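note to self — DONT lose this again. spent like an hour looking for the file last time. sequence + predicted structure for the chain T wanted, 335 res
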Amino acid sequence: MNWYPWLNGPYRQLVGQYADGRGHHALLLHAATGNGDDALAYGLSRWLICQQRNGEKSCGECHSCRLMLAGNHPDYHVLAPEKGKSSLGIEPIRQVIETLYAHAQQGGAKVIWLPQAEQLTEAAANALLKTLEEPPEKTYFLLGCREPSRLMATLRSRCLYWHLASPDEQLSLQWLGRQAAGSQTDRLTALRLHDGAPLAAEQLLQPQQWQQRSTLCAALSAALPQRDMLSLLPVLNHEDVAERLHWLCALLVDAMKWQQGAHQYVLNQDQQPLVHQLASLLSSASLQQIVQQWLNCRHQLLSVVGVNRELLLTEQLLRWEQMLGAAGYSHPHSL
């Protein structure tokens, strides 16, 4: 498991609480994707399970540490959905609870790491809730989440909430400079497109992913003068459509910022000519309407089972053309 410099502070604070006897048996770790919450949870788990702690560090030498490093410690449990499933049902929860009420096999702490608590079914959450209320001795639950509002209120209330914020932008840029190719402007753009999460930015900066975004931006720039928004269909209609629509909406929101003179807050720093182009062609009200329509489209694509992706995208692109036409522009498609 890799470690990241921006986790040092949060790690010391959390370990300090447990070392002082103030640590909570159930920690709800709220973090955006790409901020390294899994590494933080693993580091904390290693410290909790270590039998010969060296201050705020795990020793790395005791039997428990060696088992953790080998990835087969019997008292460390990671709960995630089975491959191909998006939810975590009650059976894995029941199994781990039964294990918890037995004595710890290594005679120390027992740790359960649930990377995305939102994936719990209602039945699984209720089963976990009972154990959170009266946990076995020296048992610690670490629950990761992206959106705490999606968790049951009763589950949240049993946990100590901890927000892992995105690191300082300059610190992240320095780290990205050592990890990823591209210019400083590219790195700043990737970082801002992911709410400052360095690992997500690093992923976007991978050559293939970055090229896909560049292709979308070029297609949009070419489509606008012709009012031929339907030409965007081939670059949007892919398995990662949610990510591509995120890029598109970010450009549209940036155009609204541009109109207000807030150029320094633009996310797409590498696409300022395109942002200016959008800001010049569309009113703020039109941009806001288009963004809302695309967000609704994205939500449907993510939440409706069996939705016809191509049809939904086509419908939205034609709406965009109609809006341009209503504003006095001509376009090549007959509606």
